[in-house]
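Good morning C.,

I know you're traveling, so I'll keep this short. The sequence:
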Amino acid sequence: MLRYGAFYGPGASDLVVTMVRKRQLPVIGGGAGVWSFVEITDAAAATVAAVDHGAPGVYNIVDDDPAPVAEWLPYLAEVAGAKPPLRVPAWLGRLLAGQFVVAQMTSARGSSNAKARKELGWEPRYASWREGFRAWVSG
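The tokens, ready to paste straight into the viewer:
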């Protein structure tokens, strides 16, 4: 079983960049939720590696750099040429987006790709969302 991080890249999450540019994706609460990302072609390469020689088990398909929302969302806005994201309190986020979104923004936990690297021989082309976001947004 492959557990993918948050997908990004051409065609995978262009709506997110549009929302960031329109300031429609705020940091909720303190933005302490930690996300793990995977660029879409890195996810595809991991899938091929798992099909080719993966043993049964659970593999996290993510980059090497889990990060809190308060870090990655402003960075995405910056590389997209947008103003910094708005910040809203958790109670307001809960009313506007629901408990699941608030939990993702405030208390999610990142993942490690160590098992996928070791057992599948897979390694992400973009080790960090920082370099991946730059490449994705700049086209």
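Safe travels,
E.
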